[in-house]
Amino acid sequence: MLGSRTESVLDFFGSYVQSHDQAMGVGNCGPGTPLLLVFPMPQAKTKYQRNQEIANLRLDAKTRFLAAAKDPNRKEDISTLIQASGLSKSAAYRYLAGGLTKAESNKSKAWLSPEEEEAQVDELLALAARGFGEVRKQIAQRIEDYIRIRDNNPHFQIGKNYVYNFCQRHHNRLQMYWTTSLTTIRCKAMSPEILEHWWKLLADWFTKFGIKTAKQIFGADEVGFIFGHQHKLRVVGPKGIRNQYQQTDPSRESCTLLTLTCADGRAWPPLVIFKASEVLPYWGLQNPLNAS
Q1: What is the model's pTM?
Q2: What are phi and psi of 204, to 5 degrees?
């Protein structure tokens, strides 16, 4: 039995979800219904995002101050408006004289226009979609080459943190990742044209041989294993040492594993092929898959 306080809390959330679902036109959920409450974890903001928020607040304060100061019907004096806006006196009088905020000044000195930056983002996304994602050094080189040609300045160089700030400015479209290897052959095989052609060939074979049920569809594959290759292991060792070494077999001998499955869920024990003239008895001591 739940306590009265816990039940009242669940009833409250049940009523809330029910009203929300009714407003959205989905499902029914009422008091007493089991709930799975998911609260998103807050994400820490980057230094660039925090600075961007501060810049936006300053720009908003400047806009409100100038609008109030230039209002022909205002009754407050400038000192009162400065105090209400939260700006310093020096900044307020600088804005009245046509001065810019730091963010506005930096934007006016930007090496790329908003349209040029969007074009660079589109190019980076197109390269990443084809499996040629660029590291920061390559992105910097690309932008430098573009500006050198555009401005006829062969010695132009961007700043050390330019690429990082560039990615932060477009954080809604760009993100850094650790890559996952994809061979060129497999990448080319993922093109829409090749996939469409493959499904058409498969449909033609199904029609030609009268394949209509899952029991008639089989799949086979082979994979090779190297005996001497050892992955990293998380092992126990003496406390305080820098490295814990693990002995491995330097042999480069390998074997081939053949598998066969059926679309209806059946699977047969794999077949293992060794490079040897005869099978040694201890090869089959540990055989959880009952391979032959």
Answers
A1: 0.46
A2: -65, -40
Q: Which long-range contacts (CB under 8 A, 24 or more apart) does 101-107 make?
A: 101/55, 101/58, 101/59, 101/62, 102/55, 102/58, 103/52, 103/55, 103/56, 103/58, 103/59, 104/59
pLDDT value of position 2:
47
Q: What is the pLDDT of residues 35-81, one digit of tens each?
A: 444 555 566 677 767 777 787 788 788 888 888 888 888 777 888 88
pLDDT tens column, 109-164: 788 888 999 999 999 888 887 778 888 888 999 999 999 999 999 999 998 888 88
CA distances from 85 to 66, 69, 130, 156 (A): 10, 11, 50, 41
> What is the chain's mean pLDDT, rounded?
77
Separation between Cα atoms, residue 25 and residue 141, nearest integer Å = 52
